[in-house]
Protein: DNA polymerase V
Organism: Franzmannia pantelleriensis
Amino acid sequence: MAQDTLIPAHREPPSLPLPFPLPLTRAGLSGFPSPAQDYEGRTLDLNERLVKRSASTFFMTVIGDSMEALGIQEGDLLVVDSSIDPRPGHILVATVEGELVVKRYELLGNRPYFTSGNPRYRPIPAADLECQAWGVVRAVIHEYPV
């Protein structure tokens, strides 16, 4: 993954509320409500939802298949926050021997490892190599082909 794929978040993201329908939760039938009723007054701002700390958030595009079993596919956009302290179980963006990677941080036998979501790739022993965490993946944006 090339470092030129890092895109910093806007320092003060503009608000962009979009229509966000209410979920239908009727227990019984009480007639036929208007389809427009579900759109009344509720909005969703993706910046507000996905970017918690804009000064420490960046975006990057995934290249490769090592995280597919964890729901991260080639071409997906990651929302990464560098202000979060990594803990076991987090998916991280890190450098390993100078290469930028996306891996899950795990403790195996009380030793830190970076693991893949693809059994073809062996765990990387983080303590034995030059590694540095850049940030924790907060969200994955996956687009379907249309």
Q: What stands out?
A: The chain has a mean pLDDT of 82. Strands lie at 7-8, 18-19, 43-44, 57-61, 77-81, 91-96, 99-108, 111-115, 124-125, 131-141. Helices lie at 46-50. Residues 20 and 43 are 5 Å apart (CA to CA).
